[in-house]
Amino acid sequence: MLSDRIARGVAAGQITETYFRWPSPQARPGARVPTRSGLIEITALTQVDPEALTDADAARAGFTTAAGLRASLSRHRGSTYRLQLTHLGPTTPARPQPGGLDEHRRRDLQAQLARLDLATPRGPWTRHVLDTLRRRPGLAPADLAAEQQRPVSRTKTDIWRLRELGLIDTTGAGLHLSELALSYLDTP
Predict the structure, then answer these.
(1) How many domains would you assign to the chain?
(2) 57: pLDDT confidence band, cut at 50, 70 and 90?
(3) Environment class of residue 95 by beta-carbon count within 10 Å: exposed (0-12), middle (13-18) or buried (19+)?
(4) Are 14 and 79 within one domain?
């Protein structure tokens, strides 16, 4: 969700907020986003009027002028949201997941995936994404979006949600299933 430029700026203390245009909020306060520059927390999310943005707002987002920030936002559709960000330090390496799943962990994971499926009007989607990445490891987010006939931004949000559950590995080239995801898919 956060570009390398933004993540580096937050880690260096030069960027404290960023702006996105979305049809509806695609993030929530308190969410922690692992990046190559460390762990970044979204501390606040507010809807703003892009015409009211000032040069000071732009500077906190890593832009020289408000006009430049508005020009960047104009390439996207939807409402404008300000995300306030803080750097929490290095990303903690994920603990290796055991190859097998115990029944309790599997039920818990199944319930979390069911909640994600129910939260969208399009219906069940999590299993389809996992099955697709199993068949096509290393798939780029844009290619996954095209295959699902969904906007790239929405697909990246789906990927982020599955990564938060420890099911998708985004380090390296393309998207890969984690050992946890493979164990989940292999367990009847």
Answers:
(1) 2
(2) very high
(3) exposed
(4) yes
Q: What is the pTM of this model?
A: 0.53
What is the distance between the alpha carbons of residues 53 and 68, in angstroms, rounded to a whole number?
Answer: 11
Give 61: exposed, middle or buried? Use CB within 10 Å, 0-12, 13-18, 19+. Answer: buried
82 closest CA partner among 52, 117, 45: 45
CA dihedral 166, 170, 172, 177 (to 10 degrees): 50
Same domain, 120 and 78: no
Quick: pLDDT tens for 121-132.
888 899 999 999
Tokens 């290393």 sit on residue: 138
- Together in a domain, 18 and 52: yes
Domain extent for 147: 103-186
Q: pLDDT digit string (tens) for 27-47?
A: 888 888 888 888 899 999 999
| b/e map 16-46, b = 16+ CB within 10 Å | bbbbbbbeeebbeeeeebbbebbbbebeebe
- CA-to-CA distance for 16 and 52, rounded, in angstroms? 18
